[in-house]
Specification:
Blueprint (H helix, E strand, L loop, with lengths): L3 E6 L2 E3 L7 E2 L1 E5 L2 E6 L1 H5 L2 E9 L4 E2 L10 H5 L1
Parallel strand pairs: 1-6, 2-7
Antiparallel strand pairs: 1-4, 2-3, 4-5
Length: 76
């Protein structure tokens, strides 16, 4: 079983997966997602060196890249 470098718990994870649009927690290893699921499922992937990040009930979104931004309008 893989060990997570970091996990984010106590958040509302928006997965963008129509079959499972929301989750409680997410486990990460490097730049990859290991698992998305309940807090218990994700905490099972934690090791002694895993960083645990408490989202405090905030929403966790996947990364977005905006490749077309008009600098002055976007900065406003």
């Amino acid at each position: 079983m893989a060990v997570a470098d970091s996990i984010i718990v106590r958040g509302m994870v928006l997965t963008q997966d129509p079959q499972r649009p929301r989750a409680e927690a997410i486990a990460l290893a490097g730049a990859r997602i290991l698992s998305v699921g309940t807090e218990d499922e994700v905490r099972a992937l934690a090791g002694p060196e895993t960083e645990v990040i408490d989202a405090g009930g905030c929403t966790v979104l996947p990364g977005f890249v905006e490749s077309h931004l008009h600098l002055f309008i976007g900065g406003a």
